[in-house]
User: What shape does this take?
Amino acid sequence: MKKLLLFAIAIAALASCGGGNTKSKPAACDSDSVAIDSFATLEGTWLRPVADSVKGFTLNPDMTAKAINSPGTVMKKWGIKGDSLTIDAETETADTIIGSTLKFRIESLRGDTLCLISGDSFTIYTRQK
Assistant: This one.
């Protein structure tokens, strides 16, 4: 497991994860390549403010994932390939369950700040302590 974490740290930097709709990058997403702190890990609970609440996800050491404050979304497992974070999820709508794989480019992982990019939008998450 340590080798997997080191591998993840070396090549990448975890939800019902939307983002801001802007093409400019904030200071936490200021690099053109993946920036990773040497002691950072993706495991943990990552949150972002949404209106009067927070949303996010938990990435567990056993590679399972859990959505936070995203009714109808069930996250199953997560993984890293290159600089991409993927999360297998199911969304329940009415009588239908739709499976999907959420894909994000990991822009940066610096301490307790994670910046993920999906398409032209980015989202900054903060690790819950």
